[in-house]
Known about the structure:
Layout: H1 2-18, E1 42-51, E2 58-63, E3 66-70, H2 78-85, E4 92-98, E5 104-107, H3 121-126, H4 134-140, H5 156-169, E6 174-177, H6 186-189, H7 193-196, E7 200-204
Parallel strand pairs: 3-7, 5-6
Antiparallel strand pairs: 1-2, 1-4
Amino acid sequence: xxxxxxxxxxxxxxxxxxxxxxxxxxxxxxxxxxxxxxxxxxxxxxxxxxxxxxxxxxxxxxxxxxxxxxxxxxxxxxxxxxxxxxxxxxxxxxxxxxxxxxxxxxxxxxxxxxxxxxxxxxxxxxxxxxxxxxxxxxxxxxxxxxxxxxxxxxxxxxxxxxxxxxxxxxxxxxxxxxxxxxxxxxxxxxxxxxxxxxxxxxxxx
Length: 205
């Protein structure tokens, strides 16, 4: 009995040292309203587009409703490629052309948003003319408790949700998403059936 007693004491000490188990993730109700207007049939055309020192020349056509995955090893230029498609001045040759009524909206996996540094969430939404509706929009993305926080003080998941909200408010019709689910829990990563119904998927290397 003495050995069993000592073993029980050891298990109890280990249990007390580890503390209580972590709380399960809280159910969230984030509602996105990506309501950008319909574009022309041809959304994006790349003619011999090459990022200097990163990727070979690319010819590509993207049409309304398509989803394309850009895959490749780390350091191959995927993020730079998406940033260039979004209009950033990235060294390149060739050209890219957007179709009619196409408004690109980019999501940065590193959350490097110089335009948001040092600004509160309410200030960020002020740029979109939502002074009276800012709180409601932030609550819809479960950011109502962070209205007076600056962007850099948010958690990774909160920064991701704010970026997606800004895509919505900016009327983006071409979404350039650089690993948007990195900081989301597994429930938030699952798209609803209505999000992707009827859309085609291709992959591009």
